[in-house]
Design a protein that fits this description.
Elements: H1 6-13, H2 17-27, E1 33-34, E2 40-41, H3 44-58, H4 63-66, H5 71-82, H6 88-101, H7 104-118, H8 120-140, H9 146-165, E3 177-183, H10 190-201, E4 205-213, H11 215-225, E5 229-233, H12 240-253, E6 258-262, H13 264-267, E7 277-279, H14 283-295
Parallel strand pairs: 3-4, 3-5, 5-6, 6-7
Antiparallel strand pairs: 1-2
Helix pairs in contact: 3-5, 3-6, 6-7, 6-8, 7-8, 9-10, 10-14
């Protein structure tokens, strides 16, 4: 069972710490444990209850009314609301609850509904990206374990693979060629999967190499297919200094190629990027770059 500070709950639920304290004192909505120094300590059930309360509150339920509902009534109302809700925050919170409970049916149902309502591309941008950011916070705070992280990753990979398969074979004769790869030691592919989908959807060809690719392999691939662009991501495996040195090395190896670079570890270095490397801060920015390439 995870332990959360009130600041953890604020980041995970979007409810201000001051508001959580008021709800505790005035309505008794949650009753946290206290440490020996009288600091609040929350558990998984507290987090799930606050996520449920947040969903109801955003759908017009007053806190005074929510406080009178039983846990069964809260879950029942949320299940009925989820049948029709298109609110991004509510969908993200439902995905979070499904992840905590390892509830594959609820996760699939919520995600499939979002895709039907918003389309795959908008679902990733509006729902999954914020959801994955929340997972990152939960991982850092020890709020989820490796089983929950793998549970989510595998379900999302399945959706990504289906979406990508739907784009294979549709590239334009004059489309550009992109090599997608992660540096050695980097294993987090989710952003690369979505880039694969976006690039293929816009008529370009993708050579997908995936995780932990040695530099020598990139040289061999470049000799075979002569790509126009490389796209990579830095999430966890390198220090800032190592990221910078890697970018210098790889862009010198391919001085005529354009590199698109994503990932939190690269964001702080974007002003020092080599001339043929460009930081991509979001899927929307990648889409703009791809649309610009398509019109050239």
């Amino acid at each position: 069972m995870a332990n959360y500070s009130i600041r953890d709950l604020e980041r995970l639920t979007g409810i201000k710490a001051h508001t959580i304290r008021i709800w505790e004192k005035r309505y008794g909505l949650i009753d946290p444990e206290r440490t020996s120094t009288n600091i609040r300590a929350y558990c998984d059930s507290d987090l799930k209850k606050l996520l449920n309360i947040s969903i109801l509150n955003k759908n017009g339920f007053k806190i005074s009314k929510i406080a009178r509902l039983s846990p069964f009534e809260i879950v029942d109302i949320i299940n009925r609301l989820s049948e029709h809700s298109t609110d991004s925050e509510s969908l993200i919170e439902n995905l979070t609850l499904a992840m905590i409970d390892l509830d594959e049916y609820k996760f699939e149902k919520t995600l499939s509904k979002a895709i039907i309502q918003l389309g795959f591309e908008n679902t990733v941008i509006r729902i999954l990206n914020p959801f994955l950011f929340r997972i990152g916070i939960m991982w850092q705070t020890g709020s989820i374990n490796s089983a929950q992280e793998h549970f989510v990753s595998n379900l999302l990979k399945q959706k990504m693979f289906v979406a990508i398969d739907g784009q294979i074979g549709d590239h334009f004769p004059d489309g550009k060629t992109f090599v997608l790869f992660l540096p050695e030691g980097e294993m987090h592919e989710m952003s690369l999967f979505f880039a694969n989908y976006l690039i293929r959807k816009r008529g370009h060809k993708v050579i997908y190499l995936g995780q932990s690719v040695p530099l020598n392999d990139l040289v061999e691939i470049s000799n075979i297919c002569n790509p126009d662009y490389f796209l990579t991501s830095f999430i966890t495996s390198m220090s800032d200094c190592d990221v910078f040195n890697y970018l210098i090395s790889i862009t010198k190896q391919f001085p005529e190629k354009i590199f698109f670079v994503t990932g939190n570890q690269a964001s702080g270095l974007k002003n020092d990027f080599p001339g043929n490397a460009f930081f991509i801060s979001s899927p929307q920015e990648l889409i703009l770059q791809l649309d610009s390439i398509s019109t050239k």
